[in-house]
Amino acid sequence: PYLRAELDLGVPVFSVEAFQFSDSGIGTLSGSFGSPSFGNISGGTQVASDLDFSNVKAAMTFDIGLGPVKLSPGLAVDFFDLDLRVQDIAGFVEENVSLTAPVPMLFLRAEGDLGIVAGVVELGGLKTPKIQDIEGTFWDAEARIELRPSTMFHLFAGYRIIHVEGNGNMDNQDFETSFDISGWLIGGGLRF
Q1: What is the C-alpha to C-alpha distance for residues 122 and 140, in angstroms, rounded to an integer?
Q2: Nearest 5°: CA angle at 107, between 101 and 110?
Q3: pLDDT tens-digit map of 2-17
């Protein structure tokens, strides 16, 4: 499910959107996975995996109207909740990763309003310098078409991609990650 709500106070505008994603599959690891102290799974191993991912994006923007176009710079926070289970096919070694983290970012929304139909593009991002042996790059991009039959309700369809890349050392364990979560979205939203 994909949900969206917006509170328009003129200046500022607050928006919140959320979705959940679950998937499982079987494949071959391209690199080692896990912690050596708990049974690291070597690259090239056939594994079964289960992923549960939830995301909530909250933004505060400041509208700058330019006729039918509106630019809205601001700040946002993407809150991630990720649970990943990876097990070798033989069933000897299993690794579990749970991560819950807020990621603050600079944010920009651009909107072209043609009356009952509007095009909206949102982009947020953050590149962190090395802090306590951890660094990363994060961005979140979304483009959607909205049908606005009333001032309080809209239907939308679009595409969203979240990119996360990071590396460092945590709890004496080196890590490196890079993943994208992307896909089509369709839904409705409320605007107050």
Answers
A1: 8
A2: 140
A3: 788 888 887 899 999 9
